[in-house]
Request: fold
Amino acid sequence: MSAQIEIAPATATHSRGTRQSVPRVALVNAPFTSCRSPSIQLGLLGAILSRHGITSKSFYFNLQLGAALGWDIYEALCDDRTLLLGEWLFARAAFGDDAPDGNAYLDQFEAELTGHLKAIQRDTQYLLDLRERVLPAFVEECLDRVDWTCFEVVGFSSIFEQNCAALALARRLKARIPQLITVFGGANFEDEMGLEYVRGLPWIDYAVIGEGDEVFPALLKSLGTSGNPTAAWPGVASRADDGSVRFSGRAPQVSDLDGLPEPDYTEFFSTAKDLDMPAMVRDKLISIPFETARGCWWGAKHHCTFCGLNGLGMAFRSKSPERALRGIDELAERYAVYQLVAVDNILDLRYIRGVFEPLAKRRQDYTFFYETKANLSQEQLKELAQGGVRHLQPGIESLSTHVLKLMRKGTAAIQNVCLLKWALYYGISTHWNVLVGFPGERIEDYVDQFATFRLISHLQPPESLGRIWLERFSPNYTDRTALGITNVRPEPAYAHVYPSYLDLNRIAYFFAYEATDVVSMSEHKEVMDHVETWQKTWKSSDPPFLVCQRGAGRLTVTDGRQPGGAQVFSFGEFDALVYEHCAARPRGVGQIVQSLREVPELEVSESAVRASLNEFKSVGLMMEENDQYLSLALPVNPNW
Reply:
């Protein structure tokens, strides 16, 4: 099935003249990135350039392609990583005859593409037509619909699956207007990846490697003064006359985040309005990305073995709570959108009291997504929920404490379950996955994890279960020999996207590998089936539940975790107190005994407490790990 495209006109507001003291800049957000939010990279750089007196305009060609292909199809095509589907689709436009044969990709990944084709209700011929005909034509229309002579510099953001689309447009721009200066930046240009692109692709003039907040405007001012600076700017890679790459090191990190402006998303919303973009696409509303921190305070101490985020800059920096609050209000007031997505890698715990408590008192209807560590307490989750946090990505990754230690997560399985419990209670959706394939794992780790899964079917299930990806910059990559990772090579999809004159080992972010001393994926089949069933029942009209009620000196627990009707358990006052003392967080027997001895006229012994705990555990109402106990039922009584 073929596809036709037509993009709406876009015009710049400046006329061409002699070179100014600072150049006029176009900023490009290329496909495939989601149409459900503006680019924080473009928004922040545009606001920073404005402070420096540099005129810029942002172009959201991802929205143009969304309108052309159909919003639902476009958004589904954005949902990929290691297959590099978005990159493959733009490979012909980017590299012409040097692009690898398209059919070979479809043949090799036929099985893996099934889900994508089902989501867009199209066949492989549709994808091939996009790659060979439709998207090259789309790039030409992007070229024709803008008067690029109004600009001296075009900056391209390259994150996730927007690399080849950006490269395709840059190549055509340089061919048509050779004096136009192209600058690339973003996660796809970190470290040697950016250096290799500069070396191999002559249509890239400069690459900003590292944080561009200070370096990019400095580079532009230098370009405006000299037209073609020859000095090796820190954080800027360029090509010397002899073809070698000049690079003097990464850009310095920004230390004062309070001094940064809020992103300017004006052009995103004006483009969305011009294109009549629907409010809802694939069940997603538009959300506003915002930033309150960079780096990872946990990773700076214990870098999780599989995590490749932050490139080479892990140092944690955050805005003051007061500045964070002002920024949230500014963005919501400016764009009248109250769904806000933090791009931070980890929540600054100061914000629980410093940001979300004030928001709760003001009773504003903002909703937030944040990434966090999984060791938040019941009270902290309550405060986050009252302040508007509705989505958390808590980095759970496993419900096996031994595997969590192999990951260097710094949490235990019982802590992760505690978070899932209280997040559900306070109406927070948790986005979590189960990762397997860590050298040193044992089959018993996953037997125990499966037993835990069966206990917590009333809690939100994981979104996936799969083998770890090997990402550049992760300890599994940088320390692979020590961690048991062998035979490392770029993921096979890279060879189907990029031409032979680029070194795939230098541009790849995802790598194929072998791992020693791991459990075979075939051993996870039953658990994967269980998770799939868990996901379906969770979304059904009659989801599983496990609730408890206190009253009249008794505890009643209603267990609806299994199909076929609920079971009701009733316990006396002593058992009720034991269960209650293990509700907020995991507790040891000694802690429970000490707490209960503070209850007037209650006779307490360790043997009695253990007997009560064993009774709850025997009927699956309590989780135990290393002599720590956690009540699993969600209380009906909101005073707990």
